[in-house]
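As noted in the main text, all predictions were made from sequence alone. Below is one such record, for Adenosine deaminase.
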Amino acid sequence: MDRTAQLDFIRRLPKAELHLHLEGAVSPETLVELSLRHDAGSLTLDQAQALCRYTDFSGFMMAFKAVTERLRTPEDYELITYRMLRRLAQQGVVHAEAYVSVGVVYYWRRIEFEPLFAGMERARLQAEHDFGITLSWIFDAVRHFGPEEAAKVFRKAAEMQRSHPSIAGIGIGGDERRTGAEPFRDLYAEARDAGLHLTAHAGETVGPEGIWGALNIGAERIGHALSAIHDPELIEILAHRQVPLEICVTSNLRTGCCLHIEDHPLRRYFDAGLMVTLNSDDPVLFGSDLESEYLLAEEQFEFTQEHLRELAANSIEASFLPPERKIVLLQQIESIA
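Prediction:
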């Protein structure tokens, strides 16, 4: 099958994107627009594009910061949310669960989040009307800011969820080399009791102990889980429990967490029966998108169309969607020829 036919099949597959950062989906062109709104000397397109050129995880974190510091108003968040959803819909994504860095807003910028969220919600509803795509939010705390700051994020999610059911859950991102999962155990229990779903970035820049830690505090889904391959017992547990893994191949390569694509464990996880999903993470900062991740799985890891169909089904099953919508979408996946 040629590349055009491959892309057509991938785009027709109803898919969910489960590991996606809103701020990492801001295109250089949109960043220039934001810079024109807010900077005394605005970024050129070349300068905005240069932010995506880095060599390691620390460089990525600095690029992410450069984007977030230019997101200041509800209108800014409305703009980037709508454009993210429009691009996802073009790839056949029917549902997304996007991380938003509420921890950065509180800890670093010290501004109120509710007005910004109102802009995000306007865009979510407009995109659902325009494209039929749905979106749930995951409030992300920055782990290396510590539990006290994470508590503000998680409790804000619980408070706002009462009037905004689009808020699905919470997670911890940031630099796990500096802060593991254990300090957040009590906060995760509190969030679970408040009715929030629990996710965690884990095993991206540290060994399997990071994933064990995330499981031990109750994480329902694991972001990255790159280092699980080094622990056979952990692989067995992940397979037995069918813990969804939010796999982000291009992200792992771009941050240097995986040096060579042939070393990436995606196919080994799949063959071992793990609940694997494909995701783009920060698509603009990594120069990828979800359809490219599916193409990569086919071209570099020898996934067949039936395998891709299974990956799409996994993304729906692993989502926080209600069961009745999952059934409808799974039936649609099966009907794609």
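The chain is about 55% helix and 15% strand. Residues 3-335 form a domain with the TIM Barrel fold (CATH 3.20.20.140). These features were considered when defining construct boundaries for the mutagenesis experiments described in Section 2.9.
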